[in-house]
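[User]
Um, tokens okay?
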Amino acid sequence: MNSSASSAGAESFFGFFVAENSHPVLRNWFLVSSPWPSIAGSLLYLLFAIVIGPAFMANRKPFEIKGIMNLYNAVQVIFNVYFFHGYWTYGWGSYYNWVCQPVDMDLDPDSLAMRFNTVYYHAYLFRYVDMCDTFFFIMRKKYKNVNVLQLTHHAIMPIFGWHLMYWAPNGHESFGGIFNALVHSIMYTYYFLAAMGPQFQKYLWWKRYLTQLQLLQFVAVFVKSAMVIAGISNCGFPWQVSLVTCTLTALMLVLFSHFYVQEYMSKKKRSSVKSD
């Protein structure tokens, strides 16, 4: 590809991300009208997780917050079931095309599109609640869990969520949202049962399969986004939004794959060596 073609490609990519292409209603909603609140929230999260939190806990014993965590896990399950139900009822289970779905710009407050947008907005706001995962690890001094995967995931999601709310709050790339809601519903059910005590451990043999489901999620979203970028799925959905999704999904796939190898395959190998 020559330099002029590359320049044109870059211009068409960045040229899409202007206010004129944003959603005429949602771009005025709280925390959507500007990217700066999301950026500031992510930076504050990293500051607390890396500097403030560990410094605060340095001379303190781990907090006993089992009750709070159980409540938090239950709230996560309830809200993610709500998200999944909304995505399915107002889009993916009704009139959405699973091969390629354009952004529905119906602005009627009672339309399926606007109801879908409302659920999507609530899920976007909930990304800030998800940050509590890290805070609980710090309060319990489980610093091993505050790793690159944890920090990257929770720092990126509010910014990524804002970008979807501003330019494409429904349509093709919301597939990642419904899949994510399903995974989170199962994942926090697991956490809820795990926090109930040792007597539930015999029912929690499926942890590794939960991680495999997360990997499947990233692969499915990556392929679905790549089809729009390649022009295989052509319905008018902005390929620029799919390219951002594809890039982020590829990063998450690498990080979660590394976690899976370290958590299951490497541990199994070390256990085998010890046994020998």
Notes: Residues 23-275 form one domain.
